[in-house]
Amino acid sequence: MAKNAPIGDNARRGAVKDRSQVQNPINHNWTKRDKDTGRFMDQKQDGTPFKGVRKEKEK
């Protein structure tokens, strides 16, 4: 996991490993996916991508 200190500065040092994100074409929300299992983990409601999580390329 990426380190996120000092607390409160709203910045991440390094990328989040073993996760990726893809935009859902139906509702246009960003969905976070686990790299090892391929399961979807979380979805953002505001339409902005997750910070520090790499984006998957569209096929």
* Shape descriptor: globular
Main beta sheet? 4 strands, mixed
pLDDT averaged over residues: 87
Give the structural class. Answer: mainly beta
Order of the strands making up the biggest sheet: 3-2-1-4
Q: In total, how many beta strands? A: 4
What's the tally of helices?
A: 0
Rg over CA atoms: 12 Å
Distance between the termini: 27 Å
Residue runs with pLDDT of under 50 for 5 or more positions? none
Short description:
This protein is mainly beta and 59 residues long. The protein is 0% helix and 27% strand.
List keywords for this structure.
59 residues, mainly beta, 4-stranded mixed β-sheet, 27% strand, globular
Walkthrough of the structure:
The mean pLDDT is 87. Strand 1 (19-23) and strand 2 form a beta hairpin. It contains no helices and four strands. It has a domain at 19-55. It has a four-stranded mixed beta sheet, with no helix packed on it. It is mostly beta strands and 59 residues long. It is globular and about 35 Å long. It starts with 18 loop residues before the first strand and ends with a strand. The protein has strands at 19-23, 30-34, 40-43, 54-55.
